[in-house]
Amino acid sequence: MGTALGLFLAARLLGVAALAAVSWAAGRHPLALLGRSWDSLWYLGIAAHGYGRTVHHNPTVVYSDLAFFPLYPALVRAATVLGPLSAGASGLIVSWTAAAVAACGIYAVGARLHGRAVGTALVLLWGLLPHSVVLSMAYTEPVLTAFAAWSLYALLTGRWVWAGALAALAGAARPNGFAVAAAVLATAAYEVWRQRGKVTHRLWTGAALAPAGWAGYVLWVGHRRGDLLGGYFEVQREWGSRFDFGRGSVHFIRHMLLHEDRFVSPMTMVIVAAAVVLYALLLADRAPLPLVVHSGVLLLVALGGSGFFESKPRFLLPAFPLLLPLARALVRTARARPGHATVVVAALAGLSFAYGAYLVVFAHTPL
């Protein structure tokens, strides 16, 4: 695990160094970009003042901070109160710490399934994804992935209560955090069926805990909005974000192909298409049920949700099991042709660092 974590930290530090060089050349401050960009400003506002901010973008689009789940701003608030740092710096510390914890959990999952080499490769590939710059920003994906990875590991090792408790925390981090609860519930249902109902009380406890974080916040927002079951989803619709089985995404792609030439949108389309292929490979490899369900739900949300098309690769960062087929292939290549593997890793690093710097410094699209 130490080697895997070291490689991950080296990858992200080099990525941040590249971003810093580009941002300074452009006359901008790298820490300000990492700590106070796009959704980070909403989370820092919640951490400082609580919920209650609403921005009327136009008569049909209303941005409310109720769309943002509470765990990350609560952690930022705690770090700000307990330490001497500003809210922006505390947000970065929380994200960087969570990213390291997530890397350890990802290694644990990969090593348990396919050995230490694959676990290490899995962590390295996750740290070199095109959107891995988000892991170095004041965003929630590192927090969600940390709880998701260790919840999935707990499932693979039969620790039901831990799996459920960690899934509840994942569900309190982001809207798509319910993918972890779905993995726990699906695995529990399979075990009940396989053992014909003769399961321990720990399984029932874990299954009951798993959706608590996500459901608790959704119901709280519903109560606050006067519509217990539909209030949170109305908030999402006001942001222009809803699940429409991909119709919004298809419309956006058609418009992009016919009328636009932005670089980020085509890159997003390539990344999402690659995720679909990787999921097919994960199924072909007969991956364990928790990993299949977790990744499948995240992919379904990314494909089926409308609004903020360019953010879809970020939504897929917690779907690290999609990288398992690539990690296994990279280990096989490294053993047979080490030079080829080195070239592949170097190419991935170059793409990750350059594209990450472009996204944060120059692109004018939401991350």
TrEMBL record:
Cellular compartments annotated: Endoplasmic reticulum membrane
Superkingdom of the organism of origin: Bacteria
Membrane-crossing segments per the record: 85-109, 121-140, 160-190, 202-220, 263-284, 291-309, 315-331, 343-364
Pathway: Glycolipid biosynthesis; glycosylphosphatidylinositol-anchor biosynthesis
Keyword Transmembrane: yes
Membrane-protein topology: Multi-pass membrane protein
Key words, A-Z: Endoplasmic reticulum, Glycosyltransferase, GPI-anchor biosynthesis, Membrane, Transferase, Transmembrane, Transmembrane helix
Major site of localization recorded for this protein: endoplasmic reticulum
InterPro entries referenced in this protein's UniProt entry, alphabetically: PIG-V/Gpi18
Record flagged with keyword DNA-binding: no
Name the record gives this protein: Glycosyltransferase RgtA/B/C/D-like domain-containing protein
